[in-house]
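Hi W., the cobalamin complex you wanted:
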Amino acid sequence: MATLEDLRAAVIRGDAASALAGVEKALAENVEAQTILNDGLINAMTEVGARFEAGEFYIPEMLIAARAMQKALEPLKPLLVESGTKPLGTVVIGTVQGDLHDIGKNLVAMMLEGAGFAIRDLGTNTTPDAFVQAARDGADIVAMSALLTTTMPAMKATIEALENAGVRSGVKVMIGGAPVTQAYAEQIGADGYSADASSAVRLAKGLIGAA
Ligand code: B12
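Structure:
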């Protein structure tokens, strides 16, 4: 559809104002928020990644595309997050140490919030100690995101820190991010992995027995 194609193109060229206008236009045309997110925004970031890999895009282009996506997400957030009453549980979420990517983590947090979880977002570059502290403060699930192969080991380090602090048995650990796999989750002793934000909701509910 032309509106979503225009939106996608605006994100790819990093034009935040047009991306925002594109989302508003799509909403006015009654396109579902989830469709705008998947076909307009996420799809655009996938293309940005492909162009980066092909050497057609460099870091600045990636960065302005990411900013445009974040701007365009604003009007979608309240629609994606339908406020539940009593939280299903508390999820502590963060991007692991050394890693500054947060678009996927933010989407997962938003979808979990929409599904009725209380969210404590620790942001990016989250140290194992910060995850441990937040788990101590009260969490049902610790959710970690990594977008770099070089920062994936921080997930393992965080699980070890949770174990050493004696809090591992009190929480479920779920992990995700583009380079992360189910096999890696099993290898490092995480309780679950999922590939995208909507399956993250199913996973989280399953982990706390609320599926
Ligand atoms: C945007 C972007 C950036 C932006 C980040 C802006 C921001 N605020 O996040 C900027 C420009 C800052 C950036 C920097 C870098 N980047 Co970058 N970046 C990307 C890019 C293009 C898109 C990532 C993205 O947002 N995708 C969209 C979101 C929606 O998808 P997602 O993050 O995968 O999240 C989904 C799932 O994975 C899952 N998920 C995510 N987290 C979690 C957590 C849980 C618990 C669960 C269950 C699920 C889950 O659900 C999400 C929603 O569906 C990717 C390419 C790509 N295709 O992935 C490269 C990419 C990740 N970057 C890469 C690199 C190399 C870098 C830099 C090292 C570049 C450099 N030389 O400086 C730096 C690293 C900085 C750092 N220390 O973190 C490489 C990583 C290669 C590798 N194998 O490690 C990639 C793959 C590009 C490439 N092909 O080479 N980057």
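The CA atoms of residues 4 and 35 lie 9 Å apart.

W.
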